[in-house]
Specification:
Elements: H1 7-21, H2 24-27, E1 37-38, H3 40-43, H4 54-69, E2 73-77, E3 84-89, H5 94-101, H6 106-119, H7 125-139, H8 148-162, E4 168-169, H9 170-178, H10 183-199, H11 214-224, E5 227-228, E6 233-237, E7 240-244, E8 249-252, E9 258-261, E10 268-273, E11 277-281, H12 284-289, E12 296-299, H13 306-318, E13 323-327, H14 332-345, E14 350-351, H15 356-361, H16 371-383, H17 387-396, H18 403-408
Parallel strand pairs: 4-5, 11-12, 11-13, 13-14
Antiparallel strand pairs: 1-3, 2-3, 6-9, 6-12, 7-8, 7-10
Helix pairs in contact: 6-7, 8-9, 8-10, 10-11, 14-16, 16-17
């Protein structure tokens, strides 16, 4: 059926159908017969206004009378006036109304969506968990979290990301799955990352407060599946020799640092450390500033994902006598990063130049604590993790970024 309905007529019919589809009658659970109606003001707020244009009111009345003449609705009037007080849906006309609007019956729509989610079952346990919840919502007469056009893109992205085995850039992912280099970042990145976080059971701990904001957390989630916004590197300087599986070796010197593409980490067989200590550095500026020929320095470039944690473990296994230190910001986030490194690698890192003494020395460069810093510091105190430093921060309302220390101080242990 191809009837030319006015914008107002379509709005009224759609509102009536929405009311019907959200009812116990539609779900088949109604204990008694129900009727479905709306007041004119719901679709035309100024219908009874003192200053409403009478010509507009007449057009509205004519539109409604036309729908009544088509047996789609029943009109009730205020007394013997021409003022409409109620617009009732005629249940006998439901099929014709759906056809006139080109609207899919919600039961058919939900059945089609259930089929979509069932099709993606078995691709990955995170996808299974997400799909199961959507199917459960749909079977209980609730809407799925996303419309089907968005859901299919999300499911395709999840399938690709969760089964990815190579380092790729976000834009490469976007064009490979969505045919557009920017669509993933602009429309789907946050949605996909929230699903992975909510339904995943990852080795990385996303609950720790070393994630500075949503974008940092999303970056960490994607890097865990080897999806990068930019190429990722591991930076080395010091007396180091790197041996690859193919027999090639590279010598690194204190004055000849090197950056290794993260995707080639898996090709490294052995790393020999010709020093008695390794220092991981939180920030690139501090890493570049440090001059110390007696130590090996590593900058991991971003979140310490599972691949990088395994890499550090490999270094520790091949260099058992080396002492490990971590140099980071003297703030709660810096200590959460340290805590995460220790827990995820099993390496006994010692904080370097991250004590209360540094806060005293560089007091004039310290910044005030933010509200979230206070919460994180108290959490670390409860955990007994470097309690003295956290208490000093709280008592003196101070925190310090490591760059000022690397600028003015040496790194003698």
């Amino acid at each position: 059926m191809n009837l030319r309905l006015s914008k107002m007529q379509k709005a009224v019919l759609n509102m009536l159908l929405d009311t019907y589809e959200n009812s116990a009658t539609y779900r088949g659970t109604a204990a008694k017969n129900q009727s479905f109606s709306i007041k004119p003001e719901k679709v035309y707020p100024d219908y009874n206004g003192d200053y409403t244009d009478h010509d507009e009111v007449n057009r509205f009345n004519q539109d409604m009378q036309q729908l009544a003449g088509m047996d789609y609705i029943i009109l009730e009037y205020a007394g013997k006036s021409s003022v409409i007080c109620k617009i009732k849906l005629k249940l006998e006309a439901l099929t014709d109304i759906y056809l006139s609007l080109g609207r899919e019956d919600i039961t058919g729509k939900r059945s089609r969506e259930i089929e979509l989610y069932l099709k993606y079952k078995g691709k990955h346990y995170i996808i299974d968990a997400f799909c199961d919840e959507q199917v459960d919502r749909l079977t209980h007469h609730k809407n799925a979290k996303f419309t089907s056009d968005i859901a299919v893109n999300i499911l395709e992205l999840l399938k690709y990301i969760l089964n990815n085995t190579q380092d790729i850039m976000e834009r490469e992912l976007s064009i490979a799955v969505l045919g557009d280099t920017k669509l993933f970042e602009n429309s789907y990145k946050s949605r996909v990352c929230k699903i992975i976080e909510e339904y995943g059971n990852q080795e990385m701990d996303l609950s720790v407060p070393d994630m500075n904001g949503t974008s940092e957390k999303e970056k960490a989630i994607l890097e865990e599946y080897r999806i990068f916004s930019n190429p990722s590197y591991v930076f080395f300087k010091g007396n180091v020799e790197i041996f690859y599986d193919d027999g090639i070796s590279i010598k690194v010197m204190p004055d000849k640092p090197i950056a290794i593409l993260s995707e080639t980490i898996a090709e490294i067989n052995t790393i020999k450390i010709y020093s008695d200590r390794i220092i991981t550095v939180e920030n690139l500026t501090a890493y570049n500033r440090i001059k110390d020929n007696t130590s090996v320095f590593i900058y991991l470039s971003g979140y310490h994902n599972t691949a990088k944690q395994k890499f550090l473990k490999k270094i520790a296994e091949h260099n058992s006598s080396v002492l490990w230190y971590h140099f980071g910001d003297i703030d709660p986030d810096g200590f959460f990063i340290l805590k995460n490194l220790i827990e995820k690698t099993g390496i006994p890192f010692t904080p370097l130049h991250m004590d209360a003494g540094q806060l005293r020395i560089y007091q004039k460069y310290c910044r005030h604590l933010e509200k979230n810093d206070i919460v994180k510091a108290r959490t670390l105190i409860e955990l007994g993790f470097y309690k003295e430093v956290m208490e000093f921060m709280l008592e003196n309302d101070c925190k310090l970024e490591q760059e000022i220390i690397s600028l003015y101080a040496g790194l003698d242990v």
